[in-house]
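During the no-cost extension, the postdoctoral fellow (Dr. R.K.) reprocessed legacy sequence entries with the updated structure-token encoder. One reprocessed record is reproduced below for audit purposes.
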Amino acid sequence: MHYWDYRDPPLNKLGSMAQIAGARRYEFADGKAKGVEAVEIRTGSGLQFTVLPGRGMDIAWSEYRGVPLNYFSKTGVVSPAYYENHGMNWLHSFFAGTLTTCGLLHVGNPETVPNDAIGPRDFGLHGRISNCAAEQVSVYEDWEDGDYVMRVSGLMREAVLKGESLTLRREITAKLGESSFTIRDVVTNHDARPQDIMLLYHFNMGYPLLDADSRLIAASAVTPADEGARTAKDSPYACGEPDNANPDRGYYHRFTPAADGLAHLAFVNDRLALGVALTFSPEELPFFNQWKCFREKDYVMGLEPCTSAPIGIGAVRRDGTVMTLAPGERREFHLTYTVLDGGDAIGTFEKNYLKELSK
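Re-encoded structure tokens follow.
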């Protein structure tokens, strides 16, 4: 099938921009997803993705020219009304999708942490922010400096009496004819006291992009994060078939910034001549976690830029890697998700960024 270059469309041939691209807003109508707000964005290049303001402005599905790019879990989309905070129950509503956000107070396994104001606090797996519905939701489409821009934004609030008062404002932007989108997040501490935060971006690669011969392209130094990774015989950059005997392993990556000061990595399937590149700032997100979960039916590669290792708020406070916001302080985080279409695009990415390993 031929795909046109929509970056400069013949406007005299269009009844509406919705003919070739745009943002469509809707709500789910039944099941545990009922009432969750969604925004589907089509860029006109073949990239289509769905943002969920009703679930922390996370991104459910993404596809390129009909090829799914992400893993989607057996839970399906789950409304925050069903969120279970304790222990590992976060998994009951972990749809995974293209992106699930973890934080803002805790990322990692469940733990109980002392608190002088309200007593011991129980933190469940990976925090609450993905299960916070957005307020101040805005969906925008218009021409800006010659580009047709599609943008969705919203604000998530994480606050408690005598405790934290944090907001995460997210803006996701795409342009007509481009096969990418950008995420701009702003986390603000509205309390009168300093606040420790943790933030992790849980990008999830799935079949058919993830397959036995898929691979990770990354200029990174790797450290095993668990026993499965320490004893694994395969490379963290390689994939494989589902394997219930050795399903889970984690790795920490440290990236060599490219000349632009950013970290660049890509997950590619050479047989499909298709891949996804992620770009972020190591200054904003100095840690990176890789999760290889190759169970049957739970076949997923997690690629996770983060503010600190996903080991829980107590541990990162002890090892001195926790990020702290002063009263009124705000931090920005920027990421770009780009489809690599074709062997030439994959080869160019590899030539430009994998060479950083040799420095």
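The chain has three helices and 22 strands. The chain has a mean pLDDT of 94. The remaining legacy entries will be reprocessed before the final report is submitted.
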